[in-house]
Design brief:
Blueprint lengths: L32 H25 L3 E8 L5 H8 L8 E5 L5 H4 L5 H4 L8 E5 L8 H4 L18 H18 L2 E9 L2 H13 L9 H6 L3 H15 L6 E5 L3 H17 L10 H16 L1
Helix pairs in contact: 1-10, 2-10
Length: 290
């Protein structure tokens, strides 16, 4: 199975990750915003080439999960990091309030239907982790999920996290490379971005009153993230806690990890077997004589 590439932002596999110690600002920066925009462009070009080989080899699928507090920059990071990939081999899915059909299945069902095929990169902009994040912070949501009663709030979150870990290991065994990013924005920076959405007319459409109300549950969300990352960061499905207060740095760091991940797979264009190659060369002769 694939194993995680090393990074200062890799969430350890021993359960000792602490949100309070995770950085929201970059440490040991090498330059300013222009520097990281240039570096991002280099990573984007490399990802373009790597995706072509991934698509041609048709052996692995890549699942990239993004989770974050509101205004951390998930959408813009996805747009920037994957700006060079071929849309034919790329897909993005966001998971919002479950539909009636989805509530008639287990909580992993709806995301399982959206998994990327071999040769493709799939992004989950939010994911099945919402079931152990927002639902944990607001357990009243469980009342609408048609679960067998009684629901034990002392065990359900660990049970769901165990189901997620098992699910991800199954996917990894079968060729899905899973890379998960928690974009770690500070409370102060989130406040500044919300104010920007209010004060700048062209950003008003992004503003949602509910996002501001959720700030009142900040500590509960941090507890939920800490539990989720500790229970599910594994060598075959790692979490990376990326500092998100500086968007150019965050995008470059994310793209760098993805680039190294794909490079580590040893991807190669498929080689034709002798018979297929002989047929191809004979057809070349036909074309040159035409």
């Amino acid at each position: 199975m694939f194993e995680a590439i090393d990074s200062p932002y890799l969430v350890p596999f021993n359960g000792r990750f602490r949100v309070a110690k995770a950085r929201t600002e970059a440490k040991n920066r090498e330059g300013g915003k222009k520097f990281y925009r240039k570096r991002l462009a280099e990573h984007v070009e490399a990802l373009h080439d790597l995706q072509r080989v991934l698509y041609a080899s048709d052996k692995h699928s890549i699942l990239v999960v993004f989770q974050a507090m509101d205004a951390a920059g998930k959408d813009s990071t996805i747009r920037a990091v994957f700006s060079g990939v071929n849309p034919a081999g790329f897909q993005v899915h966001g998971f919002k309030k479950p539909s009636t059909e989805e509530l008639d299945h287990d909580f992993l069902w709806r995301s399982s239907r959206r998994l990327p095929e071999r040769g493709r990169i799939g992004v989950f902009n939010r994911s099945y982790y919402e079931e152990v994040l927002v639902v944990r912070v607001h357990p009243g949501i469980l009342g609408g999920q048609r679960l067998p009663e009684p629901v034990d709030l002392d065990t359900i979150w660990n049970d769901r996290l165990a189901s997620i870990a098992d699910h991800e290991k199954h996917l990894a065994r079968n060729g899905t490379v899973i890379v998960k990013f928690w974009l770690n924005v500070s409370r102060d920076e989130q406040r500044a971005r919300f104010l920007s959405r209010i004060d700048e007319p062209e950003k008003n459409w992004k503003f949602a009153a509910g996002d501001v109300r959720e700030r009142g549950h900040w500590d509960a969300y941090m507890d939920a993230y800490q539990a989720a990352l500790n229970k599910t960061s594994r060598p075959w499905a790692p979490w990376y806690a990326i500092p998100a207060d500086d968007k150019p740095y965050m995008r470059s760091a994310t793209a760098d990890i993805l680039r190294q991940t794909l490079e580590g797979l040893g991807l190669r264009y498929p080689e034709l077997d002798p018979d297929a190659r002989a047929e191809m060369l004979s057809l070349r002769d036909v074309l040159t004589e035409d």
